[in-house]
Structure formats: structure tokens, C-alpha cells
From TrEMBL:
Residues 1-33 are annotated as: Disordered. PROSITE patterns: AA_TRNA_LIGASE_I. Keywords: Aminoacyl-tRNA synthetase, ATP-binding, Cytoplasm, Ligase, Nucleotide-binding, Protein biosynthesis. This is Tryptophan--tRNA ligase, cytoplasmic. It is found in: Cytoplasm. It holds the Pfam family tRNA-synt_1b. GO terms for cellular component: cytoplasm. GO terms for biological process: tryptophanyl-tRNA aminoacylation. Residues 17-29 have a biased composition (Basic and acidic residues). The keyword Aminoacyl-tRNA synthetase applies. GO terms for molecular function: ATP binding; tryptophan-tRNA ligase activity. It comes from Spizellomyces punctatus (strain DAOM BR117). Its EC number is 6.1.1.2. Belongs to the class-I aminoacyl-tRNA synthetase family.
């Protein structure tokens, strides 16, 4: 149940029930969604898909509904992105209020991030960045991207500082390859960037969050290092515009919109509570569903299991092999049964990947109908998925190769930038 006075709602740390020996109860448990763990519920030993309606209720967010999509289209003059049309960005906080401001010609900026846990991002990480690129094009707004190499250093016991920094640079280049406008985009590594405005906000935020709130929200215990307990202050700081005085000035009066998958919401629930106390505008959020791991629904693609993920560095042969070998199929047990009863696209990982990345709405609907009716078999579906994902990854690799040192420096340059004038709304809403 959400506390109406704050955004905090229920603490997020709801680990799956454990047996006495510490292992997870196998037959049934509730779904778990935290910044570190995503697992669908288990009912009678069977893993089920993530229940996003339940998350909306539990986290106290708003559903993105048709009227909101229509308003977006009216205001921007652009058809909503396929991620919105297909319900993959499904929930928000205060997006309506942000659009009210935009309609009045008042500026906002975008804030997102990445925790560089490995040298390459995976295709699931592409989701918020593809969406940010679209939002930047549509709203012509500035974007700040935080690389939380400090977070990874603090949370991964074995990670060396030098490796955290190396991953940060490699991931930054992956991110630059999405085609953001370098004039309007700042990418920064926490370990390398902390100006006075930014650090002052980190400290102000830290003063508002007690150890017990951080522990309850993130599930820390007394053996966790103090850096973990404090880290939320660092991820919260870019939500306030005067953390970037060189871009937005010293007042801290410009709100931001944060696109991310819903696993990051706990950080921003606390941020929004703190914003009230510091008299800053609350950040608005827009939440994505999880791009599933190859092994199936009820999961998220995660960098920590190489066989669950397709990386932006994978070759076409690796992608083909991973999808053929590991992509969970919603098909029937035998060819005959598949022809007779059809497959289940809702749990079929290849279909879910197409739902994210196949641009053509008509083709997607056609595939869904044919797969459901048994006309299309799992093998054919996998072939289409392999083609789409391989093309996407190759495109990213090609664009990354074109990055020059000048462009890289431009994205990292924290110096003054062109003032960001908000794009005018296309049409006033009624
Ligand atoms: P990280 O590196 O875990 O994830 C980076 C972004 O990708 C999203 N994401 C996914 N989206 C869809 N499907 C998936 N399987 C999937 N896996 C990850 C995450 O929600 C995130 O948006 N602490 C953060 C870094 C961060 C950040 C932020 C993220 C700092 N500031 C502001 C979002 C917004 C992290 O480790 O993200």
C-alpha cells in the first residue's frame, strides 16, 4: 500500500521466501523486482511472467493510457514511439505535469544512466537509450547520462577501480553510438566528474535520507559497506538541475524526466521525497518493462549471465547460436501439436524480442497471428528474430566505429553548452 504523503510506498526489498537452509523456496513465491534482482512469481514450481499491473499498484505509479498517448501525439505532432504504442513503456510518475509545463513553453531535461558492470552493454540496456534518443529528437531537450562506475565499484566486491573506469569508457562509447546530439547531451562518469554544484546536492540529499530508510528501501544489512547505503544520494543528484550549473544555471528549478526500466524506480521514489524537502521540482519518470533473458519471461536480460544475454559486441554467429540454443519457446511440444494448437507468443522469447525491435506494426501483428494459429513454427520465428537482432547489433557496431575522439570529447565535456531552448509544443491540447 502506498503512503499517500510520499512516493515511498512499500519497501522494495521483498526477497523470495527462503527455506531454513537459506535457499529459495522452490514451489511458490511472489515476484521480486529490485535494482539487483528481477524474478517473476513462482506458482507450484512454475515461473510466471512479471505482473506489471501488480507493480503499478505496489510502487504507486500511474499507467500510461490511451488519453495520455493521444495528448503526447497532439503536443508533439509525432506518432508515439513503438515502445509506447505497444505498451512497453507502461507506467509513469508526473508525466502529465511535465507535459503541462511543456505546453506552456517551459523547459525540462532528460536524465538517465547506466551502471557499467561489464565491457559491453546488452540489447536489453538499449531500451531506455533508444527511447531517450526519440524523446530528445521529439522534444529537442538536453539529456544527462550518469555512468555509475562508483556504484559498480561499491557493489561488486571483486571489481577493481581501474576496471570500473575502463568499463565506463567502453559503455559510454556504446551509448554515444545511439546517435544523441552531442551539443545537447552530457555523458559523465561519477568517478571522474563531480563539480561543486553536484557534490553540494549529493550532501544535501544524504542529509535527508536516514540509514534505516536506505536499508529498508534497498534491503541492505549491517554487513553492507557504507558506500552502498549512501549511493542513492549520488544517483539522485542529477535529478536536480543545479547539479549541472554550467548547463542549467544555479537555481535548481528545471525538472527532469527519467526514462528507465521499472527496476530503478526505488531510487527515484526516495529522490522525489527528498525533492519536496529541498524545495526542488520532483523528477518525473517513465518506466519500461524488462527485455527478457533468453531463458524466458519472468526475468530480465542481465549482464551477469553471459548465456542469458546478447551483447552489443556479439558476432552474427554468436547471436544466431544463442537464440537458436537458448531462446525460450512458446511453441507446442511436437510439430503436430504446434500445427493444431499454435504457439503462445506471450511467453515466447523470440516473439518478445520482435515486440521490442521489429519496427513494422503490420508484420508484427501478422507474425503473432500466424504463430498463434500454428501456421508459423518456432524455427521460423527464431529465424526472423535472429535477422532483426543481428541487424540491430550490427548497426550499433557500425555507428560505434564512426565515433571520433572529437565527438567523444564533446559528449564528456562538462563545460558550458549552447543554451537549451525548449521546442515549442506543436498544438495546444484541449
Ligand atoms: P543498469 O546498468 O542496470 O541499467 C541501465 C538501464 O537499462 C535498464 N535495463 C533494462 N531495461 C529493459 N530490459 C532489461 N533487461 C534491462 N536491464 C537494465 C535499467 O532500468 C536502466 O535504465 N544504477 C543504474 C544506473 C543509473 C540510472 C540512472 C538508470 C544511474 N542513474 C538514471 C536509469 C536512470 C544501473 O545500474 O542501471
Amino acid at each position: 500500500m502506498t503512503n499517500p504523503a510520499t512516493d515511498s510506498g512499500a519497501p522494495i526489498a521483498q526477497p523470495a521466501p527462503k527455506k531454513e537452509d537459506g535457499t529459495v523456496e522452490e514451489s511458490s513465491h511472489e515476484q521480486v523486482v529490485t535494482p539487483w534482482e528481477v524474478q517473476g512469481a513462482q506458482v507450484d514450481g512454475k515461473l510466471v511472467a512479471i505482473d506489471y499491473n501488480k507493480l503499478i499498484e505496489q510502487f504507486g505509479t500511474r499507467r500510461i493510457d490511451e488519453p495520455l498517448l493521444e495528448r503526447l501525439e497532439r503536443l508533439t505532432g509525432r506518432k508515439p514511439h513503438p515502445f509506447l504504442r505497444r505498451g512497453l513503456f507502461f507506467s509513469h510518475r508526473d508525466l502529465t505535469q511535465l507535459l503541462d509545463r511543456y505546453e506552456k513553453g517551459k523547459p525540462f531535461y532528460l536524465y538517465t544512466g547506466r551502471g557499467p558492470s561489464s565491457g559491453s552493454m546488452h540489447v536489453g540496456h538499449m531500451v531506455p537509450f533508444i527511447f531517450c534518443k526519440w524523446l530528445q529528437d521529439v522534444f529537442q531537450c538536453p539529456l544527462v547520462i550518469q555512468l555509475t562506475d562508483d556504484e559498480k565499484f561499491l557493489f561488486k566486491q571483486e571489481l577493481k577501480m581501474a576496471d570500473a573506469l575502463k568499463y565506463s569508457l567502453e559503455n559510454a562509447k556504446d551509448i554515444m553510438a545511439f546517435g544523441f546530439d552531442p551539443e545537447k547531451t552530457l555523458i559523465f562518469s561519477n568517478l571522474n566528474y563531480m563539480n561543486a554544484g553536484f557534490y553540494q546536492n549529493v550532501v544535501k540529499i544524504a542529509k535527508c535520507i536516514t540509514t534505516s530508510v536506505s536499508k529498508a528501501t534497498f534491503g541492505f544489512n549491517d554487513s553492507d559497506n557504507v558506500g552502498k547505503v549512501h549511493f542513492v544520494s549520488v544517483q539522485a543528484a542529477p535529478s536536480f538541475s543545479n547539479s549541472f550549473p554550467q548547463i542549467f544555471g544555479p537555481k535548481g528549478d528545471i525538472p527532469c524526466l527519467i526514462p528507465c526500466a521499472i527496476d530503478q524506480d526505488p531510487y527515484f521514489r526516495l529522490t522525489r521525497d527528498v525533492a519536496n524537502r529541498l524545495k526542488y521540482p520532483k523528477p518525473a519518470l517513465i518506466h519500461a518493462m524488462f527485455f527478457p533473458a533468453l531463458q524466458g519471461p519472468g526475468s530480465k536480460m542481465s549482464a551477469s549471465n553471459p548465456n542469458s544475454a546478447i551483447y552489443l559486441t556479439d558476432t552474427p554467429a554468436q547471436i544466431k547460436n544463442k537464440i537458436n540454443k537458448y531462446a525460450f519457446s512458446g511453441g507446442a511440444a511436437t510439430l503436430e501439436e504446434q500445427r493444431k494448437f499454435g504457439g503462445n507468443p506471450d511467453v515466447d522469447v523470440s516473439f518478445q524480442y520482435l515486440r521490442f525491435f521489429l519496427e513494422d506494426d503490420e508484420e508484427l501483428a501478422d507474425i503473432e497471428a500466424k504463430y498463434k494459429s500454428g501456421e508459423m513454427l518456432t524455427g521460423e520465428l527464431k529465424q526472423r528474430c535472429i535477422a532483426v537482432v543481428s541487424a540491430l547489433v550490427k548497426d550499433m557496431q557500425d555507428r560505434r566505429k564512426t565515433l571520433t575522439q572529437e565527438i567523444v570529447d564533446k559528449f564528456f565535456n562538462a563545460g558550458p553548452r549552447t543554451p537549451f531552448a525548449p521546442a515549442a509544443p506543436v498544438q495546444a491540447s484541449t
